[in-house]
Amino acid sequence: MQKLKHPSSSYARILFRYLRLNEDDSPAFFKGTNVTYDELMTLDGTISRNDLSCIYRNALAISNLEALGLSVGTQLHMSTHGPLGVAAFSGPDLRTGLGLIARYSVIRADFFEISARETSEGMRIALTETFDLCDLRQFMTESVLSGLFSAITFFTGAGEFKGRVNIAYPKPDYWQKYSGHFGEIIKFNQPATEIIVSKAILSLPSPVADPVLHQEAVALCQRQFVDIKTGGADRGSESISAAVSKLMYENPGQLWTLNDVADSLFISRRTLIRRLEAEGTKFQAIRDELAKQQVVSYLNDASLSVESIGYLMGFSDTSSFRRSFKRWFGMSPSQYIARIR
Q1: Over the stretch 12-40, which tens digit does the pLDDT of each residue have?
Q2: In the predicted model, is pLDDT for residue 4 greater than 60?
């Protein structure tokens, strides 16, 4: 029996930050839900479908922005989607990335079933509601289409999309904002909601392709997919250091802190420190070792620049990545590369 997959809290967290809310504003954001501010800020946490739907309605009321979904969708970058984002962007080309998004979208959320089908025209990425979205239909459709369009643009570059966008519902009053977002290739009142990606751009390579990382991320997506389909399995007990390593390994592209990990494992910071010490290790040592392993795998790909590797590791600027690299390896990235290439 397939178990219900609770959507990742990262989507609500991005919405919270996009609206520039703070903890004092959270009661209005969480009205009618069982979610707290602390739970929202738990990295890699989940929120039930009903609570997330309620949060979206609250956000629409708070913002009073008619095209909120279009704007929020542009904020969904690679790390937002966990291992699925890594798998899609580290693959060889756009075709592979879109196929993976369609196949494994259920591991992130289940508001839509996303399908990918190649035709003589190109690839059709269709959205089908898994339940009646009612008043959330436009917001959810805008968010997902905008996120997909951003993913495609990652491969093509801004303004280089070739294809069209079809929307099943009628043209809204603010339809010009759709044109401003997607270009003049959008049609409403269509039989299906879909993005048709021209065959001419499907083979565009990923700017951050990494065969090793891609294989690891796809394998993780498959495990999570099977877990959902089968209802999960008893994984037995594991050491706290193994749990920490697994959490960070399965969620690459993020800069984990001690508090983030403690929250995600549902224990206090002090308990995490104490249990790691009992196993003869420390959080910093585990994090640094995993980071070094990942960086080494990236450096083996001569096509990746230092900037690209820093981005894949979750750093927002290259200077921070260079400082961390020197702490890990005792030398700069350029010095290290000169020794291995």
Answers
A1: 887 888 888 888 888 999 999 988 888 78
A2: no
| CATH number of the domain located at residue range(s) 234-340 in this protein | 1.10.10.60
Q: Which of 242, 233, 318 is nearest to 281 (CA)?
A: 242
What sign has the CA pseudo-torsion 279, 284, 285, 290? positive
Tell me the two tokens of residue 27: 């009661």
Full DSSP string of 283-340 = HHHHHHHHHHHHHHHHHT-TT--HHHHHHHHT-SSHHHHHHHHHHHHSS-HHHHHHHH
Domain ranges of the chain: 1-64, 68-210, 234-340
Q: Please give the Cα distance from 184 to 164 (Å, whole number).
A: 8
pTM greater than 0.85: no
207 to 35, 156, 261, 271, 304: CA distances (angstroms): 38, 10, 30, 41, 8
Q: How much is the average pLDDT of 41-52?
A: 72
- CA distances in angstroms from 307 to 36, 74, 75, 320, listed in the order given: 36, 22, 20, 11
CB distance 176 to 107 below 8 Å: no
Q: What is the bridge-based pairing of β-strands 163-166 and 186-187? A: parallel
Burial of 81 (0-12, 13-18, 19+ CB in 10 A): buried
165-192: burial string, b at 16+ Cβ within 10 Å, e else:
bbbbeeeeeeeebbeebbeeebeeeeee
Maximum CA extent, the chain = 62
List the structure tokens of 157. 């570059």
CA nearest to 94, candidates 206, 178, 5, 196: 206
- Given this model, what pLDDT does residue 123 score? 95
Q: Mapping DSSP to helix (H, G, I), strand (E, B) and coil, where does residue 158 land? A: coil
